Amino acid sequence: MNAPFYGVSTTRIYCRTGCKSRRPLARNVRHFANVEDARAAGYRACKRCRPDEVATIHDRVLEACRVLRDAGERMTLAQLGARVGLSPSHLQRLFTQTIGISPRAYAKLAREDLYERPRGDRPGSSVRYAIVDSTLGRVLVAVGPRGVCRVDIDDDDRALERRLRETFPHACVERNDERLTSAASSIVAYLARQGPWPLLPLDVRATSFQLRVWDALRKIRPGATMEYAELARAIGSPSAARAVARACASNPVALLIPCHRIFPAAGGTGGYRWGPRRKARLLELERSALVDDIDVGG
Known about the structure:
Layout: E1 5-8, E2 13-16, E3 29-32, H1 35-40, E4 44-45, H2 59-70, H3 77-84, H4 88-99, H5 103-114, E5 126-134, E6 137-143, E7 148-154, H6 157-167, E8 172-175, H7 181-191, H8 208-218, E9 226-227, H9 228-234, H10 241-249, E10 262-263, H11 276-297
Parallel strand pairs: 2-4, 5-8, 9-10
Antiparallel strand pairs: 1-2, 1-3, 5-6, 6-7
Helix pairs in contact: 2-3, 2-5, 3-4, 9-10
């Protein structure tokens, strides 16, 4: 996540976020809220951007950085100024003087840094996958270094494999049905109403906003639904209903992040990557399972 300063572990130098020096590898970067934290961690000031010449960061600038990092949508300077209590011109001048780049450039940088390629998509890394039958069609389950990195549904195995390889063009993608039997079976069992909603470890990359949305989605109980605007309010971004919808649409792991449980306020099923028929079927399965549980218990 971006902050006003960052340090590079390989050089032990810290810079302003807008420093013109060569961009370091993400794995070598550590972010700092102020120069004191950077110094305490053993980093020395960059001689190019001279971050030590700014002894403190204005609280309004810090708040503007936070708003830009967490924003699900692009903001105008006037909108940002209204959020932090500064006029657009004053905000532009203070932000640029303090951080070294404009608010617009900072927002672009935050988006670029957060939208990293998936963890499994590294040269030499391995992504294993299996394709199995289910009540919704063929289901692909792919696993990266730390967990499930993709769940996809289609009627065509070749389409599933093509999309997987397009998502992980740099990784070694290998089919291995035997080793992934457990993960795939838990999803199939759920769809057949023979097992609980699968809680599998995930290995996905996302912006901070997407992660907030996806975490909230996983807290919606099976069979229940929520509107995009309701979810936006639940994560503390009441004006970001459209951004919530986009975060749902970018979900790479069907079912495990249950975006089928969210609907537009105007009615209808809304968009769903795997089609409205499957969305309706998923909710039907979940609700019928809840009824069965009530009947058995009472």
